Amino acid sequence: MAQNYVENCFDQDNPALTDLQNIESNLHCLKTHFSGSSTPPDTTVGVIWADTGTNWLRVRRADNAGWNPVIDLSTGSYGGAAAKVQRTVTAGSGLTGGGMLVSDVTVSVASSGITETMIASSAVTASKIANGAITAAKLPVVARVVHRMGWQFGRTVEGAKDFSVNKTPTTKDGFYVYKTSDMSNLYAVFRGGTTKYILYARLYHSTAGAGGSSSGLIHPQQEDTTGTLDISGLDNNTLHWIRLQFWSNSESTTAYLYDYIVFAS
Questions:
Q1: Which of 202, 128, 191 is nearest to 169 (CA)?
Q2: Any residues with CB less than 8 A from the CB of 254 and at least 6 apart, and which?
Q3: Residue 176 belongs to a domain
Q4: How confident is the model at residue 158 (pLDDT cuts 50, 70, 90)?
Q5: pLDDT in tens, 44-69
Q6: Structural domain includes residue 105
Q7: Cα 154 from chain centroid?
Q8: 25 Cβ contact partners less than 8 Å away, ≥ 6 residues apart
């Protein structure tokens, strides 16, 4: 192992044997990369040092004030805490993140970063998606129709169903909903009214309770209205009986219902 590099190894006043020995020693330093357990005594920018104390091959930094580890001579691992691979990951269109490869670099997709023109045909197939990688919770919430007024409710000749209501919420119809884990609410849109009073409508479940009683207001002008029922606490993968209840601000009156539809999201 050699670390002592002699700068002046050729001078007319030097003994020839001394210069030849210094040249040989210098070549040995270069051959072994100044190997040794301690820092070479004469350093300059770019000097390579085989640090036998830690088994790291190091290179002298540009400021000549320290060393950057290059490779672990015992394991073959590259870089260390201060090592930098001179490649920068730059975020492209629709991406965020990037940086120098000092450690792991995360590049993520920005909001609305991927459009239909950025994913090549057949780029995403079933075989490329791991089991369980895409769940209902990661998909956007999309409202879907789970029930709409059917013949079981009945209609009059004029196209509306007549029924009696009073101030007490009364069940007039019902339907089953098969609840899945991605369903949290039911939204009902009613169209009906009374001849002169206000008609109220809501969805009701024996466990979830009532929903939409304040927003489920149907004016005499036959306006559409929406009632909401929170079903997030109900069991998943189970059929649940949902009731339609109606009442009015009058002791007793005749109401009519043209139609209704129920969405889930």
A1: 202
A2: 162, 163, 164, 165, 194, 195
A3: yes
A4: very low
A5: 898 888 899 988 888 999 999 999 88
A6: no
A7: 47
A8: 2, 4, 5, 6
Which one, of 190, 197, 186, lies nearest residue 249 by Cα?
Answer: 197
Cα–Cα separations (whole angstroms), residue 112 to 15, 94, 115, 129: 77, 7, 7, 21
The domain of 155 spans 144-264
Q: What is the pLDDT of residues 244-257, one digit of tens each?
A: 888 888 788 888 77
- In this structure, the chain runs to a length of 265
pTM above 0.85, yes or no: no
Longest pairwise C-alpha distance within the chain: 127
CA torsion 43→45→47→49, rounded to 10°?
Answer: 70
Among 179, 250, 190, CA closest to 222? 190
User: Which parts of 46-119 are beta strand (E)?
Assistant: 48-51, 56-60, 67-72, 85-90, 95-101, 107-109
Identify whether the C-beta of residue 103 lies closer than 8 Å to the C-beta of residue 82.
no
In this prediction, residue 9 carries a pLDDT of 75
Token digits of residue 45: 């920018």
Report DSSP state, residue 78. Answer: B
The reply to whether 167 and 250 lie within a common domain is: yes
Q: Is residue 95 part of a domain?
A: no
